[in-house]
Amino acid sequence: MLFTKVKSISTKELQEQLNNQPTIVDVREDFEYQGGHIPSAVNLPLSTLDQQTGNQKLHEPWYLICRSGARSMRAAKYLTKAGYDVINVKGGMNAWNGPVQN
Asked: Whole-model pTM?
């Protein structure tokens, strides 16, 4: 499978899902996550994702977010190939207008 099809949504669409308590996975590095993240987001940095996914007991689907959407797209392709149900958040935290926790 040369190309992996990944589902994507906008930050506005994710914000509309917040009442449903979606599983949000922030794939930025820890220092970026600590600088401000979506309050319910779990931090699984892309750089260590392959070592951490087997330990996670998170409900699927996972909504993946990063700073701009590029790393979360890479993570989404990797996780989709591994059999996870994931959705990439286009625009990332740069486009996020919802609540942020430090």
From this structure: 0.91
